[in-house]
């Protein structure tokens, strides 16, 4: 029986560009780096306030990375979408969609990470 989610993996071609994005644009903490027995280069990140990790994997032997539209995304809570949008745009990553207000009052936007992975940003509704 499953107990809890430990991590999710995204395979990439440009490891250093992706590391820079997750660290500098999203503000995630790099937890560790390692190399698997088969030669995958692995970098793990953690968001503040979360236990689950994001594993970024570079393994060229698997062939090219092909991310289709609307295939998958990660969702992160942000305090202020406008401030985040200014920060990310200044680093070369403008919002790709939104912001939009949802029916529950939260504000949602998206940004494209390197390799084409989509990141959802959610600013909770004001209480």
Word description of this protein:
Helix content is 17%, strand content 38%. It is an alpha/beta fold and 127 residues long. It has a single domain (7-59, 66-123), classed as 2,3-Dihydroxybiphenyl 1,2-Dioxygenase, domain 1, CATH 3.10.180.10. The strands form two sheets. The protein has a four-stranded mixed β-sheet with strand order 1-4-3-2, covered by helices on one side. The chain has a four-stranded mixed β-sheet with strand order 5-8-7-6, with helices on one face. A hairpin with a 5-residue loop joins β6 (95-101) and β7. The protein starts with 6 loop residues before the first strand and ends with a strand.
What is the gist of this entry?
The chain has 127 residues and is an alpha/beta fold. The protein has helices at 15-25, 81-90, and strands spanning 7-11, 29-35, 41-46, 53-58, 73-77, 95-101, 107-112, 118-123.
Helix content: 10-25%
Major sheet description? 4 strands, mixed
- Sheet/helix structural class: alpha/beta
- CATH homology group: 2,3-Dihydroxybiphenyl 1,2-Dioxygenase, domain 1
Low-pLDDT ranges: none
Query: Helical stretch count?
Result: 2
Number-wise, the strands total 8
Order of helices and strands: EHEEEEHEEE
């Amino acid at each position: 029986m499953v107990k809890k989610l430990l991590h999710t993996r995204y395979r990439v071609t440009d490891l250093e560009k992706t590391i820079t994005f997750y660290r500098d644009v999203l503000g995630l903490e790099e937890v560790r780096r390692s190399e698997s027995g088969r030669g995958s280069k692995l970098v793990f990140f953690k968001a503040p306030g979360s236990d689950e990790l994001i594993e970024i994997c570079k393994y060229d032997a698997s062939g090219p990375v092909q991310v289709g539209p609307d295939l998958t995304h990660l969702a992160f809570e942000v305090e202020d979408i406008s401030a985040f949008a200014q920060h990310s745009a200044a680093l070369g990553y403008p919002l790709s969609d939104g912001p939009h207000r949802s029916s529950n009052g939260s504000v949602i936007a998206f940004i494209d990470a390197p390799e084409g992975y989509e990141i959802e940003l959610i600013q909770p509704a004001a209480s």
